[in-house]
């Protein structure tokens, strides 16, 4: 029961930080369209900026709760020993991204028009905030998992060079996977926004839903080869948990693939077909189910 609770909290945490990381990237693109006269894009950019800010705050809070629940002697030794230097850096990087997203969200006009130079400056803030999160945190937690799996949680603090030596194919695959998942989640947030707009402006809702579906569909398609890369880069014992040794692991692996295909089907229909409330809700449910199953699968592979 504790493991299931932890996995659900982790899934919620990942969903929040995906919004915080992907929102500024998609939002800066919408901001550019808004500057060229697209009012719906400008309004969507401002809404996504606020969602990114909330996502980062909620994701940070959930991360602290997860850390507290896992804070046994082994986990404490890891973060106060080998990763103590990186832990201090993580706090600084999270605060830096928070400040950038806050500044970006306050600067967005929320309506069409405006200066191109100002839009470019805003976009630089947004992209820096997102890439800062996407670069530091997936690599940090990949190394943490690496050290835990090898029972190397004690000892002196790792230097920057020592940390980089632990970055392997699995860490790079995970970072790429998280980046794509962030873009897809931000796209689905726009589909959710379309549901709100549909009550007042059906045409604008349909347009922003198609935009969001495209942003979700393309990264989700790219997740297929990236997922294979991530699977192949896992340790042999972790692979065996998912591919035959563990019944639970196999079921989670198969269920995750089916959920991902369900999500791709719904996103394709939203992208190339007509917008409908039922389909939009189904796509969002598919995204949630996929995230939960993949989180459970990731937890299973590290048992």
Mean pLDDT, rounded to whole units? 91
Instruction: Please report the total strand number as a whole number.
Output: 0
Distance separating the two termini? 15 Å
- Helix-strand makeup class: mainly alpha
Give a written overview of the molecule.
The chain has 303 residues and is an all-alpha fold. It has two domains: 18-167, no CATH class; 168-303. It is 85% helix and 0% strand. It is built from eleven helices and no strands. The protein has helices spanning 2-35, 39-69, 73-80, 84-107, 116-149, 160-165, 169-197, 202-233, 236-243, 247-272, 277-301. Helix 1 crosses helix 7 (169-197) and helix 8 (202-233) runs antiparallel to helix 10.
Summarize the structure.
The protein has 303 residues and is mostly helical.
SSE topology:
Blueprint: H1 2-35, H2 39-69, H3 73-80, H4 84-107, H5 116-149, H6 160-165, H7 169-197, H8 202-233, H9 236-243, H10 247-272, H11 277-301
Features:
mainly alpha, 303 residues, 2 domains, 11 helices
């Amino acid at each position: 029961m504790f493991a299931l609770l932890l996995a659900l909290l982790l899934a919620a945490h990942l969903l929040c930080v995906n919004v915080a990381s992907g929102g500024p990237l998609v939002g800066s693109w919408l901001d550019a369209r808004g500057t060229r006269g697209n009012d719906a894009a400008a309004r969507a950019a401002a809404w996504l900026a606020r969602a990114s800010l909330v996502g980062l705050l909620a994701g940070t809070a959930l991360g602290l709760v997860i850390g507290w629940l896992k804070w046994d002697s082994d986990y404490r030794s890891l973060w106060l020993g080998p990763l103590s230097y990186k832990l201090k850096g993580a706090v600084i990087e999270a605060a830096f991204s928070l400040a950038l997203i806050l500044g970006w969200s306050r600067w967005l006009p929320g309506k069409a028009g405006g200066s191109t130079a100002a839009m470019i400056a805003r976009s630089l803030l947004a992209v820096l905030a997102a890439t800062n999160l996407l670069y530091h945190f997936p690599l940090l937690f990949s190394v943490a998992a690496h050290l835990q799996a090898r029972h190397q949680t004690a000892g002196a603090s790792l230097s920057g060079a020592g940390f980089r030596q632990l970055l392997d194919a699995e860490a790079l695959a995970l970072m790429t996977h998280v980046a794509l998942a962030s873009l897809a989640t931000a796209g689905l947030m726009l589909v959710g926004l379309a549901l709100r707009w549909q009550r007042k402006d059906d045409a604008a809702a349909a347009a922003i839903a198609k935009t969001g579906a495209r942003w979700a569909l393309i990264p989700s398609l790219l997740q297929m080869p990236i997922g294979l890369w991530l699977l192949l880069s896992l340790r042999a014992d972790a692979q065996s948990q998912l591919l035959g040794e563990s019944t639970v692991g196999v079921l989670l692996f198969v269920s995750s693939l089916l959920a991902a295909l369900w999500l791709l089907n719904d996103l394709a229909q939203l992208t190339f077909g007509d917008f409908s409330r039922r389909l939009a809700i189904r796509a969002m449910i598919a995204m949630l189910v996929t995230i939960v199953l993949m989180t459970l699968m990731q937890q299973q592979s590290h048992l």
